Amino acid sequence: MKERFRALDPRLLWVLLALIALGTLTLYSAGRNTPQAGIWLKQSLWNLLGMLLLLLLATMDPRRLFRYSFPAYLVGLVALAAVLVVGKKIGGSTRWFVILGQTFQPSELMKWVTLLYVSHRLGSRNAETVGRLELFGAVGLVVFPMLLIQRQPDLGMALSYLPILVIIPLMKGLRARWVVALLLLVGLGGFGAWKFVLKPYQKQRVMIFLDPSADLQGKGYQVNQSRIAIGSGGLIGKGFTSGSQTQLNFLPVKTTDFAFSVWAEERGFLGVLLALGLFGLLLSRILDAARVAHTNAEAYFCAGAAGIFALHLLVNVGMVAGALPNKGMVLPFFSAGGSSTLSFFLALGLIMGILHRSRVK
Q1: Residue 135: how many CB atoms within 10 A of its CB?
Q2: 99-102 contacts: CB < 8 A, separation 24 or more?
Q3: This prediction's pTM
Q4: How far lies 32's CA from each of 26, 61, 225, 260, in Å?
Q5: Residue 220 — φ and ψ, nearest 5°?
Q6: What's the CA gap between 258 and 225, in Å, rounded?
Q7: pLDDT tens column, 202-232
Q8: pLDDT single digits (tens) 25-79
Q9: In angstroms, rounded to a whole number, what is the distance separating the alpha carbons of residues 346 and 213?
């Protein structure tokens, strides 16, 4: 057991524990005096299971996981297709399986499985021998699960796959003209999505983002209350369990999408800087893992993981501040949720393994 603990990277571990502590305090306050008063205990259990998973993966040779990435990818695709048929429908979306009374969202895990397989596929060959066909094939491997997820529908989750599309081809030395072509395709895809893919409520979110004051008591209510909560926090915040927007239940979905608003109201601007600083240290250490990785596949996975974590941070914080449309993207270790929590720990466990392998070999 001591060997397993020695495999943990201290710098990454302490940042992770600090974020878990901040998130647990936030969820305790958010659920206080509501039917979700025990949400922090449930989330603590998920964090404990996640730490056990991280401990297991940290001592495992990462190459073993990469070798099984293809069958895992196929199983993930089957799960994404199956959830559309037999999954549980909640709030108009069919995203979850119910297993032993607990909901499981396969798209959360599939995000990391896709990154693992694409990293393995591109990293198994020298960068000079990978051509455009292989790169566009890798793009297809990412786009296919994105389309299945959009059918649920879950646009926010589908968008969280974007770092895999962007970062890995760039690391392979994709020329500037192909980057421009990719951006043009994304632009055309966005136009096509607006015309033929996006649901009316998703279009409405974009319109509310452009003009939040247009419907303050309707679709703009969530973001407006979040901005009030953040603004009322001031420099040092209102104090633990003392935020009026949180405790009087004006703030919506405060244990998931808007958990960071709770933290900002209670801890103020300085607390926000603390949380963002910890996320910055987390991203920095993940990128360190990419630099010391022994193989291209490991480096690509770490770079893609940094991109996914950064996107979740950017979109969630931008959303609660009203700077981005409400996409329902969770904030790692702050937002409650078993599937997302375990998937983040899985990614960090693999990164721990890569760091450990770089030290011992």
Answers
A1: 18
A2: 102/338
A3: 0.87
A4: 10, 42, 18, 16
A5: -90, 0
A6: 10
A7: 555 555 545 454 445 555 677 778 888 888 8
A8: 999 999 888 888 899 999 999 999 999 999 999 888 888 889 899 999 999 999 9
A9: 40
> Which two three-digit tokens encode residue 54?
């991280």
Which residues are 103's β-sheet partners? 98
- The edge-to-edge listing of strands for the beta sheet with 93-99 is 88-90, 93-99, 102-104
**Rg of the chain over all Cα atoms, to the nearest angstrom:** 20
Q: What angle do CA 271, 276, 277 make, to 5 degrees?
A: 95
Long-range Cβ contacts of 76-80 (<8 Å, 24+ apart): 76/106, 76/109, 76/110, 76/113, 76/114, 76/145, 77/110, 77/144, 77/145, 77/148, 79/106, 79/110, 80/106, 80/107, 80/110, 80/145, 80/148, 80/149
Tokens of 255: 């244990």
The neighbouring-strand residues paired with 97 are: 104
Amino acid letter at 293?
A
Identify residue 197 by its one-letter amino acid code: V
